[in-house]
Structure prediction request, 111 residues.
Amino acid sequence: MTETVNRARGEVSLRLAGRDFRLRPTFAALAETETMTGCGLVVLARRFLDGSYGIRDVVAVLLPALKAGGAVMEGEVGDLVLDSGLLAVAPACAALLAAALAPGEATANPL
Prediction:
């Protein structure tokens, strides 16, 4: 990745289909995630922790955070997730949600 992630801001790095990206949990990105999933961040984080998340949840976390991190890739996120593997991408989503829910704390990957 050409730009490093700022962990103090809750940013998470993610490699999708051989490309490095930065996920940034801005207010707008998190609000868009809630709109896309139809639930709050705590409920969504629980889905990732208990394994009941789906591909739509993953895309709903990734797409707004990727845009906030500087990537514009509306149509390709779902395909990139499938190319990389859902189980390989989910930990970055969980880490992003954990960082958003507990800012400033050491957020080890919860998955």
Remarks:
- The mean pLDDT is 87.
- The chain has one domain: 7-101.
- The helical segments are 27-37, 41-50, 55-68, 77-84, 86-101.
